[in-house]
Amino acid sequence: MPEVVCYRASSYRTPVRSRRHGPDSAGRYHAPGSPPTQYFCLHPLTPWAEVIRNQRCETVEDALETRIAIWAIRLALPARPTTIDFDAADAGNTVLPISPQDLTDDDPTICRALAQAHREDRRAATILRVPSAALPGTENIVILGARRMIEYQTKPMRRIHVPAAVGAVDARP
């Protein structure tokens, strides 16, 4: 399996999710109460774009007030991860019909339904490569399921293990 380095903006409690999200938690590919869902960015600038979009920062000052930890994550991907990009959506090559616009729309309802369809179909992929809704031209990895963080330099012994290390504390864009 090829390994990639991913990035994530997160508190110390949630760089990797190992149990259910709280009742208020929701994301592009999970609804409140969904099983754990991991979001990792393949470009180092994407975590900040995601934070700025999710926090609805409207000015530079709003963005500069935001402080969060930035993590580096080593992630083993399948040789051919399931890629749900604009071409696949346009061609109808997804578990659930989705349009290219749905992948980055402000309303994530269709993306959540797509992820749920993957969770319910045992033959479907649990690791998805998707476009970032916050930073055009970049991609994210979405893992549908729990993972456990281990030390960054440690070799993962099981699929659930994800090596991670904080790269910046109280960082700002």
List the helices and strands and how they pair.
Layout: E1 3-10, E2 37-41, H1 46-54, H2 60-65, E3 68-76, E4 82-83, H3 86-91, H4 109-120, E5 127-131, E6 139-144, E7 148-151, E8 161-171
Parallel strand pairs: 4-5, 7-8
Antiparallel strand pairs: 1-3, 2-6, 3-8, 5-6
Q: Could you list some keywords that capture this structure?
A:
173 residues; four-stranded mixed β-sheet; 4 helices; single chain; alpha/beta
Low-confidence stretches: none
Total count of strands:
8
Largest sheet: 4 strands, mixed
Distance between the termini: 32 Å
Number of helices: 4
General shape: globular
The SSE string, one letter per element, is EEHHEEHHEEEE
SS class: alpha/beta
Strand % is: 25-35%
The percentage helix is 10-25%
**Radius of gyration in whole Å, from Cα?**
16 Å
Overall pLDDT level: 89
Tell me the strand order in the biggest sheet.
1-3-8-7
Structure characterization notes:
The protein is of the alpha/beta class and 173 residues long. Helices cover 19% and strands 29% of the residues. It contains four helices and eight strands; from the N terminus they run E-E-H-H-E-E-H-H-E-E-E-E. The chain has helices at 46-54, 60-65, 86-91, 109-120, and strands spanning 3-10, 37-41, 68-76, 82-83, 127-131, 139-144, 148-151, 161-171. The strands form two sheets. The chain has a four-stranded mixed sheet. A four-stranded mixed sheet has the order 2-6-5-4. The longest helix is centred in the middle third of the chain and has 12 residues, at 109-120. The radius of gyration is 16 Å and the shape is globular. The termini are far apart. The model has no long low-confidence stretch (mean pLDDT 89).
